[in-house]
Fold this sequence. Notes:
Subcellular location: Cytoplasm
CATH class of the largest domain: Alpha Beta
Structural class: alpha/beta
Shape: elongated
Protein name: Pyrroline-5-carboxylate reductase
CATH architecture of the largest domain: 3-Layer(aba) Sandwich
Bound molecules: NADPH dihydro-nicotinamide-adenine-dinucleotide phosphate, (2S)-3,4-dihydro-2H-pyrrole-2-carboxylic acid
Number of strands: 8
Largest sheet: 8 strands, mixed
Radius of gyration: 21 Å
EC number: 1.5.1.2
Domain Pyrroline-5-carboxylate reductase catalytic N-terminal: 4-97
Amino acid sequence: MTQRVAVLGTGKIGEALVSGLLRAGKPPAEVLVTARRPERAAELRERYGVETVDNAEAAKAADTLILTVKPQDMGTLLEELAPHVSADRLVISGAAGVPTAWFEERLAPGTPVVRVMTNTPVLVDEAMSVISAGSHATEAHLLRTEEIFKPVGRTLRVPESQQDAATALSGSGPAYFFFLVEAMTDAGILLGLPRAVAAEMIVQAAVGASVMLRDSGEHPVKLREAVTSPAGTTIAAIRELENHGVRAAMLSALEAARNRSQELASGGK
Ligand SMILES: NC(=O)C1=CN([C@@H]2O[C@H](COP(=O)(O)OP(=O)(O)OC[C@H]3O[C@@H](n4cnc5c(N)ncnc54)[C@H](OP(=O)(O)O)[C@@H]3O)[C@@H](O)[C@H]2O)C=CC1
Ligand SMILES: O=C(O)[C@@H]1CCC=N1
């Protein structure tokens, strides 16, 4: 990777990408970042040794522009940016909801755009980054995008029509697991355990279950059945989960997340 990459709107996701690029061996001189607040820019300069520039400068100086502002801020960013982006740049959007066509309408004709939905495990190099090409993005642009996201986890290409679902499952996915861990830790308190003890047990159960899911290749039903002894403890809990409609709640929850992603298509509020 010899080209300059700029991260525009370097918040949580943007910073994680900067740190991933540097850990993957990209020299700090080839990474530019932009921030809205001067104190944030100073923090990023100090922490990573990268150059901070304004959005227009980033567009002129970098070959690849990664846009990591909130969907609601994308309109303002594009107004600032679009006049300075030539069609030989690659524009990667990390925003939920906003389609590649929205960017293509605002950028110079023919500018390649790639949409990526990553997730916060980007911070521990365990992200899933789901990638779709816009209408002018070629195989080479997709490979360049994968080169940026592979150091921070796995990548998967999908048709853009699947991106709102990917946002519901994968982009938001870690939050559902954190929510479960939080609720299960509370259950430990209810059962009389000290919070720290309950948290240690539940987090390790989550890590163990995750590694089994990823590395065994077994279907989750099979893994759950292996825990569920006849007339045992697990089935007593599963009955309560079914009685409370937890499976149906997951279906509705992810559908709501997908719908919200669709609503964000035009940088919606
Ligand atoms: N958080 C998550 O789990 C995931 C988020 N995403 C997507 O990633 C994007 C970023 O999310 P996240 O990192 O959580 O959000 P953050 O709010 O942490 O980061 C966005 C950053 O953009 C800055 N910003 C806004 N407008 C401008 C501008 N015009 N010029 C320069 N900087 C600007 C903000 O500045 P300021 O600090 O001043 O507000 C902020 O630092 C969103 O589009 C979201 O949909 C995708 C996958 C997962
Ligand atoms: O909640 C959100 O809108 C962002 C996108 C996916 C995860 N977080």
